[in-house]
């Protein structure tokens, strides 16, 4: 296959993958390849506008760059300009675009309308163009560097007339794969390259070891799973230096013992480092068991397959991380919904410990709450609580409450006296410390710890807000209960006053509803009318500073001709209370009590006239229902989700925070069987992970308890 065909195939692969249109010019602005890709904005400007003229003008500049760079060919519209150096000293430029600058849409749209007219739907084209923003520029540069390396290798190989057609099947096999088929690529590579007898890759097992994960070729059956340390042997040297290297005639080299003891006897070995998204380095290695020398073509071929793998694995890592983050975000959304539907402190604490225990898969999790006005401490825990937990709790109280550690919402890592690391997340609402979420962590990588810490910080923020709302809800319910008790007390010693207050409350409530006031305000107006028998100062002492006592005070002041405030100086709720009280005192001459011509007075007058010819019966006072029990029969979830008895047992242990190994030991079954049960449970619950499963179970139980 000719060089131009291979180049265009490579362009097409990258153009489709990243949503760009790609072309190549020489340093004089002459186009060397066809225009490939379906970037709508770029293609429209090339066909209908003067974009090609801009490219030709820019191409003849002296580009003093050796790496890909962004070029704003129009305001807010960028090309990635990728420099290529040929073996003959010729300089080339790859133009990949166009990308739209995020956050600059209006300016860019105005420029396009001014330059090319308003007939084209520029807004839609801009929305479809890939976005360039400060936090993804490095990502685009990295992708462009991969393309640069492949094109440069293609040009070099072609210049040696050695043929580069072997690369096309690999490119075609890679295109469209969500995950690189490493074994398939290796086998295809070996079938196309006769100067290689074997090809493999070693990846990090942990910080101190590498493992050969995939290998293809002759006599390599004993290599998979082989371990080595960074710096050890041929492969270990590349792993630690992160630089490509090759060795010739290695049959008697002492470093070859790593292979010889596995009945594998290579004569050459070529190694290339492959950078992964998590910062680790893999090693691609290959060579021959028959030839003792390494050609330049073999080195370039190794670089090509390493670049392909690096690009594929990097993209796969990003997609995997993105899916992982989406699942976590989805979990947080479900948790938010659940906490919003569960305005009770105890339930919220249970949710926090359950979710965090299953997330960290550690030994225990606890929420520590301290009453600011006393020495009482509330502790809610799950998991294997250590014997010295009380000592740890006292230490947490001292560090966060007594010493007032100024950490904000940031999670802290703490080493306990018994050797367990704990992520401590303060539950702050504004400037108030509500508690501390303490999550013991199990074994894991630094990256996993970082992810857990970030997730728990977010969970702590959500939990703190939910706890504050639950406390406010409890205080509101308590105030409502006190108000009801005060109202009923009137009936015991002054039945006539009680009846008047009840009638006034009904009238004021009906009027408030008619003029469209919100339900919470209507409720406060009704309560204020019911308690208007008491003095405002008494109500403030009993109920504290709240809207009800203020409405009573302002409503009475509006009817006091001596020092009455202006009607527009008090709340609308107080005005309605005043109107209700005026009608209660003098139904036939209530307007004399009011002595105002505010708009609301006229509305009240109209309301009374309409009310005289209508009949309604309703109750404004709501009964106080008992809160639902926290837990319901375990059969609820089992019946609704059609779980088998064994699946139900497994789910209960999942909820308790046991990992798969612990569940297997508890039920005397294999870990593989547990994994199958957990997978089926997630399918029946229609959730992707344990956090979602916890949320779903709580939702089902909560719905059942409210029936």
From TrEMBL:
<dbReference type="InterPro" id="IPR029016">
    <property type="entry name" value="GAF-like_dom_sf"/>
</dbReference>
<keyword id="KW-0804">Transcription</keyword>
<keyword id="KW-0805">Transcription regulation</keyword>
<feature type="domain" description="HTH luxR-type">
    <location>
        <begin position="636"/>
        <end position="701"/>
    </location>
</feature>
<dbReference type="Pfam" id="PF00196">
    <property type="entry name" value="GerE"/>
</dbReference>
<protein>
    <recommendedName>
        <fullName>HTH luxR-type domain-containing protein</fullName>
    </recommendedName>
</protein>
<dbReference type="InterPro" id="IPR036388">
    <property type="entry name" value="WH-like_DNA-bd_sf"/>
</dbReference>
<keyword id="KW-0238">DNA-binding</keyword>
<dbReference type="InterPro" id="IPR016032">
    <property type="entry name" value="Sig_transdc_resp-reg_C-effctor"/>
</dbReference>
<dbReference type="InterPro" id="IPR000792">
    <property type="entry name" value="Tscrpt_reg_LuxR_C"/>
</dbReference>
């Amino acid at each position: 296959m000719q060089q131009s065909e291979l180049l265009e195939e490579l362009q097409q692969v990258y153009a489709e993958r990243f949503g760009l249109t790609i072309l190549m010019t020489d340093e004089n602005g002459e186009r060397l390849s066809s225009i490939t890709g379906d970037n709508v904005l770029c293609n429209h400007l090339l066909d209908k506008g003067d974009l090609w003229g801009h490219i030709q003008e820019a191409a003849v500049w002296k580009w003093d760059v050796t790496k890909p760079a962004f070029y704003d060919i129009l305001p807010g519209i960028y090309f990635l300009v990728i420099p290529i150096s040929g073996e003959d000293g010729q300089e080339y430029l790859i133009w990949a675009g166009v990308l739209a600058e995020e956050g600059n849409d209006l300016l860019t749209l105005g420029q396009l309308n001014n330059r090319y007219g308003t007939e084209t739907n520029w807004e839609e084209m801009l929305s479809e163009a890939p976005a360039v923003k400060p936090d993804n520029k490095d990502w685009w540069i990295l992708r462009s560097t991969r393309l640069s390396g492949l094109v440069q290798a293609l040009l070099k190989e072609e210049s040696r007339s050695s043929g580069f057609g072997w690369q096309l099947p690999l490119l075609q096999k890679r295109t469209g794969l969500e995950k690189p088929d490493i074994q398939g690529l290796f086998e295809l590579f070996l079938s196309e390259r006769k100067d290689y007898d074997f090809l493999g890759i070693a990846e990090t097992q942990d910080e101190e070891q590498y493992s050969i994960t995939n290998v293809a070729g002759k006599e390599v059956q004993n290599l998979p799973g082989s371990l080595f340390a960074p710096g050890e042997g041929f492969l270990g040297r590349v792993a630690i230096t992160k630089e490509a290297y090759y060795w010739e005639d290695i049959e008697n080299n002492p470093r070859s013992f790593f292979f010889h003891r596995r009945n594998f006897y290579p004569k050459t070995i070529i190694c290339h480092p492959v950078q992964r998204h998590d910062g680790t380095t893999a090693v691609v290695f290959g060579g021959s068991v028959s030839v003792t020398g390494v050609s330049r073509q073999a080195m370039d071929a190794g670089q090509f397959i390493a670049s392909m793998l690096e690009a594929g694995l990097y993209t796969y890592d990003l997609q995997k991380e993105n899916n992982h983050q989406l699942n976590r975000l989805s979990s947080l959304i479900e948790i938010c919904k659940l906490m919003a539907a569960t305005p009770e402190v105890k339930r919220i604490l249970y949710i926090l410990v359950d979710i965090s225990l299953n997330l960290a898969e550690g030994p225990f999790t606890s929420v520590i709450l301290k009453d600011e006005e006393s020495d009482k401490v509330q502790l809610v825990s799950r998991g294997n609580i250590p014997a010295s937990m009380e000592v740890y709790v006292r230490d947490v109280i001292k560090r966060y409450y007594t010493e007032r550690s100024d950490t904000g919402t940031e999670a802290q890592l703490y080493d306990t006296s018994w050797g367990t690391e704990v992520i401590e997340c303060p539950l702050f609402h504004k400037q108030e410390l509500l508690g501390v979420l303490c999550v013991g962590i199990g074994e894991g990588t630094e990256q996993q710890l970082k992810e857990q810490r970030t997730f728990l910080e977010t969970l702590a923020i959500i939990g703190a807000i939910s706890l504050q709302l639950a406390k406010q809800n409890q205080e509101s319910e308590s105030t409502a209960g006190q108000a009801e008790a005060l109202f009923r007390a009137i009936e015991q010693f002054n039945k006539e006053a009680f009846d008047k207050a009840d009638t006034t409350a009904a009238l004021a409530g009906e009027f408030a509803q008619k003029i469209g006031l919100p339900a919470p305000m209507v409720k406060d107006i009704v309560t204020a009318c019911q308690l208007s028998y008491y003095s405002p100062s008494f109500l403030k002492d009993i109920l504290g500073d709240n809207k009800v006592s203020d409405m009573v005070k302002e409503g009475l002041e509006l009817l006091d001709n001596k020092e009455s405030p202006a009607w527009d100086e008090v709340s609308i709720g107080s005005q309605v209370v005043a109107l209700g009280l005026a009608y209660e005192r003098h139904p036939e001459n209530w307007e004399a009590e009011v002595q105002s011509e505010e708009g609301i007075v006229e509305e009240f007058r109209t309301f009374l006239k309409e009310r005289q010819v209508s009949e309604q019966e309703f109750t404004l006072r709501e009964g106080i229902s008992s809160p639902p029990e926290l837990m319901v029969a375990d059969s609820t979830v089992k019946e609704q989700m059609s779980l088998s008895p064994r699946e139900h047992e497994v789910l209960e242990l999942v909820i308790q925070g046991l990992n798969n190994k612990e569940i297997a030991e508890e039920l005397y079954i294999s870990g593989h069987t547990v994994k199958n049960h957990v997978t089926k449970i997630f399918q029946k619950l229609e959730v992707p992970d344990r956090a979602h499963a916890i949320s779903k179970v709580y939702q089902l139980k909560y719905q059942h308890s409210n029936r």
